[in-house]
Amino acid sequence: MYTRPVWAEISKTRLVEHYRILCDIAGPSADVLAIVKANAYGHDALQCAPILAAAGAKWLGVTCLEEALSVRKVCPQARILVMSGVWHGEAEAMIEHRLTPVVWEPLHLDLLHAAAEKIGSPAQSVAVHLEIDTGMSRQGVRSEQLSLLLDRFATASALRLEGVMTHFHSPEILDSDGTQRQIERFVTCLDIISARGLQPAWIHAGNSATLLVDRDRKALASIAGTRGARLMLRPGLALYGYVPRFSGTHDAATELQPVLAWKTRIISLRTIQPGEVAGYSATFQAVDPTRLALLPVGYADGLNRQLSNHGSVLIRGQHAPIVGRVSMDLTIVDVTDIPGATIGDEAVLIGEQDGSRITAYDLSDLAQTIPYEVLCAIGVRVPRVITG
Length: 388
Hints:
This protein is an alpha/beta fold. It is built from twelve helices and 20 strands.
């Protein structure tokens, strides 16, 4: 039971509409893998994943086995792509729960092969997606090691190369030379795979930016089509209502609106006099009589400490500046210029109120980070409530 007045509202209507918009942009020759890793970017994967599945999402993307098993319980029929490889003790569960791991290390194939033999999996029954490192130097097999890894996909093997993927390091940069070089390397590796007689059903690369930029999306669709595969696109942030900050995205992207609103309430009020201070380390000192409101939310809930004396919240449709340090469980705001502010008033950290708006982009700019971190940082003790 949650009684503390801090919560996040998740709009089911917006989430479903975004999935449909992104599918329309992707087109009939492509599939959309809905990314629900990192607790659906802070939106609650166990509530969002079933909503997306009911809206038609056949593929869901997670980070690890633990996330996959949780999502499997609420989405028994979905294909679940486990995007960060296989570790010791995980392979049997991957096979048992019909999960699809991304692989690139010989270790991943060793573990899956041993588990498949142990439980008697038939030939070609364990689907995997092979990641190619085309220049990000994070995950993926490098081109010079690719042939040795492909030897593991013999016809008699339980392992089946169902998909081939890569990850762009700068998809948000329009006309990026880096992205073009990565696409060229990807094509070279796909040619090697084809020459070995392997035919993946899906080829995928990129994220929300790739899906929303016509040129990159169409280039990938052509690459997949010439190889008899379907293109798979992997939107994450766009699903939740945020688009890359550059021109050139698809016109339909303007319809995306933030899915999550983060709210709290005023729990205490006081007036301090000139010269008095507020918060840890006395970083705020009043110049004039100042009306302060106390909010029961802090950095333990995910409110970035960089917003101290810097950010604001919405109260009665007006911006109330954060004063003093954001502390672990509490934050103080200045409501001197908001007549009538009282205990119980709603305070919006992210969201809309009476025509005013604060987004994860706004907070990320102030905290010198990215909206992904702002959303993912919202803590587990902040309950997510599904709204219409």
